[in-house]
Design goal:
Blueprint: H1 10-22, H2 39-50, E1 57-58, E2 61-62, H3 68-80, H4 85-112, H5 116-126, H6 129-133, H7 142-162, H8 165-181, H9 185-201, H10 204-207, H11 210-229, H12 233-247, H13 253-270, H14 274-283, H15 294-311, H16 322-336, H17 340-372, H18 376-387, E3 392-394, H19 399-411, E4 428-432, E5 442-447, E6 450-455, E7 469-470
Parallel strand pairs: 3-4, 5-7
Antiparallel strand pairs: 1-2, 4-6, 5-6
Length: 471
């Protein structure tokens, strides 16, 4: 099906896309660690320092996630300097989001045989609220994971649609990279997409052909081979499975009910402006109630089935939906593409979103961080000043503790990064949770989100056991 867009708008779409993508530059360095961003930079530095390649390490202990994002951070940090490892981690996330935008645009152009949809679809994806303002650039593994999951689904879609084994090879390479980035759920995203497309096209013979079966069998062996080869493969296998199970569990019926009603509302908000414009256009009868073509229906089925587990799981976060944002964008773009009035309205709101993003990046978020959140670098400096080179350990794995530990690790180079204290520690300092004071420990300093404790002879150097709250 060929969509009919005004070709004179393509340059405007590309210009807006570049302006929106450029806004990521201003989120790379102007705020400190946000949420649990420090996890991957901290682990990447520990891996590099100790010479670990296959096993992420946190506080000296094996971590249960695969290392592809860590290795990407390590490589980039070695180029730009470890002091900029947060910038490196955010840069990878931002480029992953831009790559996802271009990927869905290329796919839209291919299935609809219309070059102008390339720019429009890229613009829609990059200005999805959650991508533009928050989860598209934060230093989590989700943007990179989403890019590989999306590539797997889209190449698999084309493989079945065009009956091309080569696209299966690309899809299976992408899903393997997604697994090595974050989680086993990559195979679920991919599997749902392939089953939906095959069912709709009745291409079962192609899917179950010997070349296809052989390639899929090898791809499914990747996790098994990885768990067997990686030094901490057992830890990773159990950790990944436990993580999936934990996400499905709630404390009671109210948790499930709250998730059932609140998650769609959150999703709608995160997908704004296009989500709001589509609903508005339907109510104003700018758009037909029926779905315009098979590709839109396919995309909605893929997105809807993959959405269900997260909708029904009380522990699911919105950023876990990043892998299906591209599929949703394809569906919604295909739905509105022939409505000139809807597209014009959407572009106006996209311009508003881009302006707001620059205000957010240059002023609002830095001001909020400065006034509301604890000053992590100052806490790290105070901890180093208090400990004065004495043995220092860490047990705090909340976001403040991880962020402060990451800053301390870089500040004490070339000394080893902080680790958890040995059992039966008799002398040293520990960066702990607030309120967590084991027997024979004394409180040295209280910070927002972390306490500094001491035990043994180092405590004798502290005249005041409970100083005022800091930072």
């Amino acid at each position: 099906m060929k969509m009919h867009l005004n070709t004179s708008n393509s340059k405007i779409y590309w210009l807006l896309f570049v302006i929106a993508a450029t806004s990521f530059i201003f989120t790379l360095y102007n705020v400190q660690y946000t949420g649990e961003e420090a996890v991957y930079p901290l682990m990447s530095y520990e891996m590099w320092f100790h010479g670990h390649i296959l096993t992420p390490v946190m506080y000296g202990q094996d971590y249960w996630r695969p290392p592809l994002y860590n290795l990407s951070i390590t490589g980039l940090s070695m180029l730009i300097g470890w002091s900029h490892m947060l910038v490196a981690a955010r840069l990878i996330a931002a480029f992953s989001s831009i790559g996802s935008a271009l990927l869905v645009a290329w796919f839209a152009k291919r299935i609809w045989n219309d070059r102008d949809l390339f720019a429009f679809t890229a613009l829609v994806y990059i200005t999805i609220g959650d991508v533009l303002f928050y989860d598209g650039w934060l230093a989590y593994s989700d943007p990179l994971f989403a890019f590989f999951c999306l590539a797997a689904m889209l190449f698999g879609w084309l493989a079945v649609l065009e009956k091309r084994i080569g696209f299966f090879a690309l899809a299976l390479f992408a899903v393997s990279c997604a697994f090595l980035t974050k989680a086993l759920t990559a195979y679920i995203f991919y599997g749902v997409a392939i089953i939906v497309i095959t069912f709709q096209t009745r291409a079962w013979r192609f899917l179950f052909s010997w070349p296809s079966l052989s390639m899929h069998f090898f791809a499914l062996l990747i996790p098994v081979l990885w768990y067997g080869m990686a030094p901490a493969g057992g830890v990773m296998a159990h950790g990944m499975l436990d993580d999936i199970i934990d996400k499905l569990q709630g404390q009671g019926v109210l948790d499930y009910l709250n998730q059932f009603f609140s998650y769609p509302a959150k999703t709608f908000g995160q997908l704004f402006p296009i989500s709001g414009i589509v609903i508005y256009a339907i109510t104003r009868r700018y758009l037909p109630f029926g779905l315009p073509n098979q590709h839109v229906r396919t995309a909605l089925w893929i997105a809807g089935i993959n959405y269900l587990p997260y909708w029904l799981s009380p522990q699911s976060g919105i950023r876990y939906l990043l892998p299906i944002y591209g599929i949703i964008a394809i569906a919604l773009v295909g739905f509105i593409a022939n409505s000139l009035k809807t597209r014009k309205l959407l572009v106006k709101w996209i311009i508003v979103a881009i302006v707001l993003k620059y205000i957010f990046a240059l002023w609002l978020f830095p001001a909020y961080t400065e006034r509301v959140r604890p000053h992590l670098s100052e806490i790290a400096k105070n901890v180093l000043r208090e400990t004065r080179g004495a043995p220092l350990y860490v047990t705090n794995v909340a976001w403040v503790g991880i962020s402060v530990a990451a800053d301390i690790d870089l500040a004490i180079r070339p000394h080893p990064p902080l680790v958890k204290p040995p059992s039966g520690l008799t002398n040293g300092y520990v960066l702990s949770y607030p309120g967590d004071v084991p027997k024979n420990y004394s409180v040295v300093s209280k910070y927002h989100g972390a306490w500094l404790l001491c035990c043994g002879i180092v405590c004798a150097h502290k005249a005041e056991a409970f100083p005022r709250l800091k930072n």
